[in-house]
Amino acid sequence: MEKLTVENHLKIANVPRKKYRSIWLSTTDAIRSADNKYFIFNKLPLIKIKKNTKLFVNSINLIPVVGDVAAIMSNLLSNAHFFIKMKNIKYNNESAIASNQDNALTLIDGYMPVSYISQSVYFVGELLEQELNHIELYINTRSNIGAFFSFGEGEGYREVFLNWSINLLMEYEEDN
Question: Which residues fall within 8 angstroms of residue 38, CB to CB, at 6 or more apart?
Answer without folding.
Answer: 32, 87, 136, 137, 138
